[in-house]
Design brief:
heterodimer, A: mainly beta, 7-stranded mixed β-sheet, 54% strand, B: mainly beta, 0% helix, 51% strand
Chain lengths: 115, 114
């Protein structure tokens, strides 16, 4: 089965450090999403791309977060500088968007701890 | 405003018992409806979806859900729960013609007593 692959699975670092999370979407999917999951806020949409172009990043703190898709097989989410409140599980999901929607497929997430 | 409500934060059932997880939504038009399951340490897995047609949809792992337009509900059911069904369950809604802004509910945590 095709899968969304996220790396690393776990990351522990000190506040102020740069954090980069990577996602390999399912081949052929044209839409990539980044979500953050916490106990308090649940699942939050941070940003998403279609055909590698950012469509919406309104859920993302602009001052420290950035999301990019250097190519169709790689999406990145960066935090610089990181803060303890960024500790969460970050999920990438991919799918086919358009007139005939298909459900999103999720990766297993990156569990981020900022000390 | 668009929203998804899952009234039950946590449910405990005995193995072999039936299960119903509730989901209500507020949306401008008939949405695309989903149920996802999340096992510990894993991502969300799609259980089933409703797009149109028969309002009773079958999913994986023996789950089914019924869309009731008049009640704005999309409840998930399973006739006999297995211990491996213990997980977090998320209801979600989204527009039919675009991928934009799929909205997830807060989730219902299911515990299964042996």
């Amino acid at each position: 089965d095709a899968r969304v692959t996220q790396t690393p699975r776990h990351k522990v670092t000190e506040m102020g450090q740069e954090v980069t999370m990577r996602c390999q979407p399912i081949l052929g999917h044209n839409t990539v999403f980044w979500y953050r999951q916490t106990m308090m806020q649940g699942l939050e949409l941070l940003a998403y791309f279609r055909n590698r172009a950012p469509l919406d990043d309104s859920g993302m703190p602009k001052d420290r977060f950035s999301a990019e898709m250097p190519d169709a097989t790689l999406a990145t989410l960066k935090i610089q500088p990181s803060e303890p409140r960024d500790s969460a599980v970050y999920f990438c999901a991919s799918g086919m968007g358009g007139a005939d929607n298909q459900p999103q497929h999720f990766g297993d997430g990156t569990r981020l701890s900022i000390l | 405003a668009q929203s998804v409500t899952q009234p039950d934060i946590h449910i405990t059932v005995s193995e072999g018992a039936s299960l119903e997880l509730r989901c209500n939504y507020s949306y401008g038009a008939t949405p695309y409806l989903f149920w996802y399951v999340q096992s510990p340490g894993q991502g969300l897995q799609l259980l089933l979806k409703y797009f149109s047609g028969d309002t009773l949809v079958q999913g994986i792992k023996g789950f089914e859900a019924e869309f009731k337009r008049s009640q704005s509900s999309f409840n998930l059911r399973k006739p006999s729960v297995h211990w491996s069904d213990a997980a977090e369950y998320f209801c979600a809604v989204g527009p039919k013609t675009s991928y934009d802004k799929v909205i997830f509910g807060p989730g219902t945590s299911l515990s299964v007593i042996p």
